Amino acid sequence: VQLQASGGGLVQAGESLRLSCAASGSPFSINYMGWFRQAPGKERELVAAITSGGMTNYANSAKDRFTISMDNAKNTVYLQMSGLKSEDTAVYYCNTDNRKRLYTPGDYWGKGTQVTVSS
């Protein structure tokens, strides 16, 4: 399974970004996609996850600011981020699996896209 993420960049605090990640080459149905992030010196953490049925889970830091959505037909997940803060600066990784999950990562990772928020 290949995951291609895009949409990262450098923004100022308070601005918005939209990340996209498309899955290809999967021999199974994609039943979950999620976003994790890793800041320098910190562990990778869940940002948001969504199942193919539309169930979602957000980290407390992402609630009310980020929205995850999924286009099942395109095997593509989106993360709309608004009100960005400097602490959102990290490499954002796309994740997927054939199993439905909302709290722990699946087996497949994308390469990551850098999000930098300047204050």
Summarize the structure in words:
- The protein has 119 residues and is mainly β.
- Helices cover 0% and strands 52% of the residues.
- Strands 2, 4, 5, 6, 9, 10 and 11 form a seven-stranded mixed sheet that branches.
Poorly predicted tracts of residues: none
Global Rg: 13 Å
Percent helix, as a range, is: under 10%
Annotation field: number of helices: 0
- Amino-to-carboxy terminus distance: 36 Å
Structural class: mainly beta
**What oligomerization state is this entry in?**
single chain
Output mean pLDDT. 96
Describe how the helices and strands are arranged:
Blueprint: E1 2-6, E2 9-12, E3 17-24, E4 32-38, E5 45-51, E6 56-58, E7 66-71, E8 76-81, E9 90-97, E10 108-109, E11 113-118
Parallel strand pairs: 2-11
Antiparallel strand pairs: 1-3, 3-8, 4-5, 4-9, 5-6, 7-8, 9-10, 9-11
Summarize the structure.
With 119 residues, the chain is mainly beta. It is 0% helix and 52% strand. It is built from no helices and eleven strands.
List keywords for this structure.
119 residues; globular
